[in-house]
Amino acid sequence: MKGTTLKTPLQRREKAVTLSSPMRGEWFQAQRLRFIETRLFWSGSLTSKDLTETFNIHRSVASRDFGAYQKLAPRNMLYNRSARCFVAGRYFLPIFGSPTLDKLSAHSVLEDQFPGEESIFQWLPQIHRHVDPAIARNVAECIRSKSDLLIVYRSMKEPEGLERWISPKALVSDGRRWHVRAYCHARNGYRDFVIGRIATADRTRQHDSELPVDDDWETVVPIHIIPHPSLSEAQKSLVRMDYNMDETGFVMKCRKALLLYALVGMGLDNDECPPKQVLALADPSIRSLL
Is 245 exposed, middle or buried (0-12, 13-18, 19+ CB in 10 A)? Predict the structure, then answer.
């Protein structure tokens, strides 16, 4: 069947669609409705067989699901009698959040959302930082139970590792590595520990006393990002479209303790000019907080 196109750019619903009370309580049906929407949006068509085989359900259950989805979003799903399948309506408006390529690529790995003989995706090779699952599990458990954890931590200064007690507070990812925000009892302050550099983390204990407030963690810093001032007006318009900005740019909220990671990740920790950098900080003085 020839593919169809949707009306672009994709519009947002002025009023959110909410599931009925019985449907909200039926987790499995909600997942099937999400599957219907995702497959329709990205593949353009869907059959009863797709639903029954993916979820191992009876055709009658699939029919009820199709009816439920059409009731929620009648313009999203139309029946093509000649092809004997449901197809996406041209004026498709998602009801389960905005579709993204990140979500599609994740599902394509599972082969459950985008049927085809070959994947349409290619990923660049990346260097992955190693994380021992048992260490990560113990760190997460101590966060949950508010316990101290004895670790042997290796660093460039102490590559053989030093033993210290920490009180884990939160797990943090910058997209390339994981670290744990924790109170270090050896340094009497909050520090960031790269999980991949924790050699051992086996012993725990309860807190002896109340921990001090982590001021840098509790302080939230707004990061106002705009197109780089040296760009032409046409180039600024392009950057706004590229990053889904309005005329004033956009504002991200970030904990002060994570500000350096955020700015480095966006290449905004220092001044760079186009073409290397097309974004800029509306208030460069926030770098003084680093």
Answer: middle
Average pLDDT over residues 105-127: 65
The token pair that represents 165 in the structure block: 């007690």
pTM of this structure: 0.76
Domains of the chain (ranges plus CATH)? 21-110 (1.10.10), 133-212 (2.30.30), 216-289 (no CATH)
Which residues fall within 8 angstroms of residue 189, CB to CB, at 6 or more apart?
183
Separation CA 179–CA 170 (nearest Å): 9
What is the pLDDT averaged over residues 123-140? 90
41-72 confidence digits (pLDDT tens): 888 889 999 999 989 999 999 999 999 999 99
Q: How far apart are CA 94 and CA 13, in angstroms?
A: 8
User: Long-range pairs for 174-183 at CB < 8 Å and ≥24 separation?
Assistant: 174/261, 174/262, 174/264, 174/265, 175/265, 176/129, 177/129, 178/129, 178/131, 178/136, 180/139, 180/143, 181/214, 181/217, 181/257, 182/149, 183/211, 183/212, 183/214
Q: What Cα–Cα distance (Å) separates residue 4 from each residue in 1, 60, 69, 77, 81?
A: 9, 28, 20, 13, 16
